[in-house]
């Protein structure tokens, strides 16, 4: 690649070319740019700049008689320009409304993430995903709810609204007030501690012979132990929208083998979570374009994600689609949706 300083005019011309290509999917000619770039320069000047951009690796020409199309490097310049001029956004009102409705129907984080991944996939017409991570999750509270026939619903709530539920056979009917006392004891003793530490402490106390003389204490510890054995995963992850890959207008440039590779990765969710953890190192936007991907199978795609850190919880919403995607629209969607999820959860708590 030749050396070439990307000054204001070439950057604006490149941005106009990328925008036009995203809209049409057709190689962009110098005549088209002369008409639509707003730079007020001739086709000859534009051809000269395009030649320099091609030498520098920002665009390429599919055939000699065709116009130019952006490379991954060209998309990166376009996205960086978008981010420079970007203003804070809120999601469409209907998106936040649907998130609030889902939160009202179910407080479970898994259900909310499934709803969010569906919403962003449908809105962007790309693969949508939602991830919540609670490394070293901390206990917020434990609740015991009698449901009859000697059974008790144990609810463990950790910070970030992560909820684990399990029905436990107590062996006998237990009064509601006794269960409330048992839960109060556990919350007084253990709230604010990491769940793994709580599990170890509960097990240790059950092994101490003196607890066996206190029926209420023993029952509380046994109910908690039974549920804490099934601690929530460190990451709750949902991904949706495989069909959108086949329906995308930009799919023509993506081979079926590549689509299969992405579909397989979507099925193996742990691989996806591992990859996202490599990319995301803090709050804000993460945008990975084409060749920037660590996984070769993702290099025909771009990934846009927005992350919020709320206490000990990390939440991310994002999309994966062809490199020829509507970046501005996708950025607004995922960033606004992530902020909306945080608002909904804060209001719920």
Summarize the structure.
Helices cover 49% and strands 20% of the residues.
Mind describing the biggest β-sheet? Answer: 5 strands, antiparallel
Shape: elongated
User: What do we call the CATH homologous superfamily of the largest domain?
Assistant: GAF domain
Strand content: 15-25%
CATH topology of the largest domain: Beta-Lactamase
Structural class: alpha+beta
Tally of extended strands? 10
Please give the radius of gyration in angstroms. 26 Å
Quote the average pLDDT.
Answer: 82
What pattern of helices and strands is seen along the backbone? Answer: HHHEEHHHEEEEHHHEHHHEEEH
CATH architecture descriptor name of the largest domain: 2-Layer Sandwich
Assign the CATH class of the largest domain: Alpha Beta
Distance between the termini: 55 Å
Strand order, sheet with most strands = 7-3-10-9-8
- The level of helicity is 40-55%
Number of domains: 3
Per DSSP, the total helix count is: 13
Model regions low in confidence, pLDDT < 50 over at least 5 residues: none
Characterise this structure.
By secondary structure, the protein is an alpha+beta fold. The chain contains 13 helices and ten strands. The chain has three domains: 8-71, Arc Repressor Mutant, subunit A, CATH 1.10.10.10; 93-135 and 235-348, Beta-Lactamase (2-Layer Sandwich), CATH 3.30.450; 139-228, Enolase-like, domain 1 (2-Layer Sandwich). It has helices at residues 8-24, 30-36, 43-55, 72-84, 93-105, 109-124, 176-190, 195-207, 215-228, 242-247, 256-267, 269-279, 327-348; strands spanning 59-60, 69-70, 127-133, 139-148, 151-158, 162-169, 235-240, 284-289, 301-310, 313-322. The strands form three sheets. A five-stranded antiparallel β-sheet has the order 7-3-10-9-8, with helices on both faces. Strand 1 (59-60) and strand 2 form a beta hairpin. The chain is elongated and about 90 Å long. The protein starts with 7 loop residues before the first helix and ends with a helix.
């Amino acid at each position: 690649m030749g050396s070439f300083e990307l000054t204001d005019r070439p950057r604006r011309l490149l941005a106009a070319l990328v925008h036009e290509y995203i809209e049409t999917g057709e190689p962009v000619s110098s005549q088209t740019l002369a008409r639509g770039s707003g730079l007020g320069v001739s086709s000859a000047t534009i051809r000269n700049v395009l030649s320099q951009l091609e030498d520098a690796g920002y665009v390429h020409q599919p055939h000699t008689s065709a116009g130019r199309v952006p490379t991954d490097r060209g998309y990166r310049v376009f996205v960086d320009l978008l981010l420079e001029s970007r203003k804070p956004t809120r999601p469409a009102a209907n998106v936040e409304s649907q998130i609030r409705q889902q939160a009202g129907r179910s407080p479970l984080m898994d259900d909310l993430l499934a709803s969010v991944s569906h919403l962003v996939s449908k809105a962007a017409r790309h693969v949508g995903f939602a991830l919540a991570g609670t490394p070293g999750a901390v206990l917020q509270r434990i609740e015991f709810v009698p449901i009859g026939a000697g059974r008790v619903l144990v609810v463990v709530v950790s910070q970030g609204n992560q909820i684990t539920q399990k029905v436990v056979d107590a062996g006998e009917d237990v009064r509601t007030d006794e269960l409330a006392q048992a839960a109060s004891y556990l919350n007084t003793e253990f709230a604010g501690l990491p769940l793994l530490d709580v599990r170890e402490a509960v097990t240790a106390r059950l092994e101490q012979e003196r607890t066996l003389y206190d029926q209420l204490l023993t029952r509380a510890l046994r109910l908690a132990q039974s549920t804490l054995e099934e601690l929530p995963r460190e990451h709750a992850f949902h991904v949706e929208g495989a069909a959108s890959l086949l329906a995308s207008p930009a799919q023509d440039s993506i081979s079926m083998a590549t689509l299969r590779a992405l579909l397989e990765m979507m099925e193996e969710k742990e691989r996806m979570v591992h990859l996202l953890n490599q990319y995301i190192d803090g709050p804000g936007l993460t945008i990975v374009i084409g060749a920037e991907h660590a996984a070769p199978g993702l290099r025909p795609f771009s990934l846009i994600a927005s992350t919020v850190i709320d206490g000990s919880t990390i939440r991310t919403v994002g999309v994966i689609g062809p490199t020829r995607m509507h970046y501005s629209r996708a950025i607004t969607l995922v960033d606004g949706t992530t902020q909306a999820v945080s608002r909904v959860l804060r209001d719920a708590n």
